[in-house]
């Protein structure tokens, strides 16, 4: 590294020196030079640009040269200066967390928009929070939002805590060390995540693998293993009518969309493109529909009598119902060898009797306390087992 001996060097001279030293290490050498100098001088970048003739003292010059040496060795600028901007906010960083990317702001924008349109939904999870940039950005823009921030790395959670305390929102934030949603109890209106999505083999060839935490980048053999596991877990955490937002690699849109439709048969799945026109986010809107499993003859009888009632009303006082993602588990546990089965898809807003959400075997199920009025049933579909007697597919008919 070549550098001038410090003899009343000016900002203009040091900016040029930094530019020449890092021009082959970054796509934005001029910007990086300005950010580095402004950070060390504790001045704004516009101030640095506006004062090219200002001289730099020896103390600051030495700090700039030391930082420049790290940049020349390939260390990313945000790690060198210890912070990075995201969604117009400043986040402290260490090598234990990913550097926030501008494309992830799309996920935050969609989350804020949905939350503003759903004022009753004020519980969210930021899965794999890292620096906390997603969850904190949501919380600052939605003043009554409460967020659970999870990460498998205790070191990453320490960074997230620092950033939460920086913005004085700790009373609305909860932290839990967890592998995705393992051990998470309760239901949330919004689940958002920027999970690892780079295939393991591809990651080995990328420079980023040596610069940022591997655990936050490695998406498994196909790149979607972590996403798949989280979507499966989220079925027990998402409220009916809730939203899942996931950042994806641009080539994974159709694969993740297909996976989401399999796990959430009645959901709406949309691929959101970034400003470059590339697939960037998956937006999964779960239905608030309830479903009841019965024999077709029971449904036919209901049409004759004008309402649906099951034996469980006289025995337990309510009709057992499920969320769509729970129905395969129910069918395989209680309805094997039962012929001629039908699924009743119901709009909860049209159901006349009281609906209570109650726990059974550790999961939350909807129970309808009274006969079901027929106008609440918006669709009826068959459910059939495979040749081995196992139920594997649930279909919803509009």
Terminal CA distance reads: 67 Å
The CATH topology label of the largest domain is Rossmann fold
- Report the C-alpha radius of gyration, rounded: 27 Å
Gross CATH architecture of the largest domain: 3-Layer(aba) Sandwich
Total beta strands = 17
Helix proportion of residues, in percent? 25-40%
Low-confidence parts, pLDDT < 50 over ≥5 residues? none
Mean pLDDT: 92
Strand order of the largest sheet: 5-4-3-6-7-9-8
Strand content of the residues, in percent? Answer: 15-25%
> So, the CATH homologous superfamily of the largest domain?
Vaccinia Virus protein VP39
Keywords:
alpha/beta; ADP-ribosylation fold; elongated; 34% helix; Rossmann fold; three-stranded antiparallel beta sheet; 398 residues; Helicase, Ruva Protein, domain 3; seven-stranded mixed beta sheet; single chain
Structure, briefly:
With 398 residues, this protein is an alpha/beta fold. It is 34% helix and 23% strand.
List the helices and strands and how they pair.
Elements: H1 11-22, H2 29-41, H3 45-50, H4 58-72, H5 77-81, E1 83-86, E2 89-92, H6 105-117, E3 123-127, H7 133-141, E4 146-151, H8 154-166, E5 173-177, E6 188-193, H9 200-204, H10 225-234, E7 238-247, H11 253-263, E8 268-273, E9 279-285, E10 290-295, H12 296-305, E11 307-308, H13 311-316, E12 319-320, H14 327-334, E13 341-346, E14 354-360, E15 363-369, E16 372-373, E17 377-382
Parallel strand pairs: 3-4, 3-6, 4-5, 6-7
Antiparallel strand pairs: 1-2, 7-9, 8-9, 10-13, 11-16, 12-15, 13-17, 14-15
